[in-house]
């Protein structure tokens, strides 16, 4: 199976270890992974700010770059949703990492170990856009494409906050246009995780974790953030 890895620009610039973990994890699972080095932004920041009509060149570039891939896999719910809806126009081959592992690879076991207390943050784009888990407002049977994968990791103590799908307040450009509201939402969300005494907060969206990380550091918290790919690829004994 040929998989092209799409790495969001903020991961490339600030959290390269997440891209490396995603690559190593997919290769461990038997995928032939290609990373096009001239990939660029998915175009989401411009589109969210009302400039979708100016992203045509970026969209065309990404369409051509990933045209031959069986699947385009991305370790970010928000970027995956943008690629799926606005660039590849609902083509099913564009998938978030946990979604791909669950629905396509049908992973049943992992050689991973992470001996820490971990809180799961379910990001809004992944939850309501990609349906990676059941959102609290829906009346249906609970499901998750992240929790079963994390349950395969040895020694991991998974903890879910009382407000299981509360927004972290980042929202991309929302954090710039409504910075006071965004900051307060981030503080509230960090309190949710500190209440359940976790060592790490994890999520399939590094953008949410980046927002929470800044809040945690400002308040001097010992709680850290880590992308779900890093945990699933980890072997800490």
From TrEMBL:
Superkingdom of the organism of origin: Bacteria
One GO molecular-function entry: oxidoreductase activity
InterPro entries listed in its UniProt record: Cys_rich_dom
Ranges of residues in domain Cysteine-rich: 3-84, 118-212
One Pfam short name: CCG
One Gene Ontology CC term in the entry: cytosol
Record protein name field: Fe-S oxidoreductase
């Amino acid at each position: 199976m040929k998989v092209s890895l799409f790495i969001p620009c903020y991961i490339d610039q600030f959290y390269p270890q997440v891209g490396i973990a995603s690559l190593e994890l997919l290769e461990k699972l038997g995928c032939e992974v290609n990373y096009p080095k001239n990939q660029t932004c998915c175009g989401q920041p411009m589109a969210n700010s009302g400039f979708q009509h100016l992203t045509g060149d970026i969209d065309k570039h990404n369409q051509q770059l990933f045209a031959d891939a069986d699947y385009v896999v991305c370790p970010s719910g928000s970027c995956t949703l943008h690629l799926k809806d606005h660039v590849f126009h609902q083509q099913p081959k564009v998938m978030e990492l946990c979604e791909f592992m669950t629905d396509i690879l049908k992973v049943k076991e992992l050689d991973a170990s992470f001996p820490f207390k971990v809180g799961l943050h379910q990001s809004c784009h992944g939850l309501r856009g990609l349906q990676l888990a059941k959102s609290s407002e829906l009346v249906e049977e609970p499901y998750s494409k992240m929790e079963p994968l994390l349950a395969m990791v040895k020694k991991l103590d998974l903890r879910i906050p009382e407000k299981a799908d509360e927004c972290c307040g980042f929202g991309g450009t929302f954090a710039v246009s409504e910075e006071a509201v965004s900051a307060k939402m981030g503080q509230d969300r960090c309190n949710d995780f500190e209440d359940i005494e976790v060592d790490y907060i994890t999520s399939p969206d590094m953008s949410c974790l980046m927002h929470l990380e800044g809040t945690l550091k400002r308040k001097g918290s010992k709680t850290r953030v880590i992308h779900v790919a890093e945990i699933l690829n980890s072997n800490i004994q």
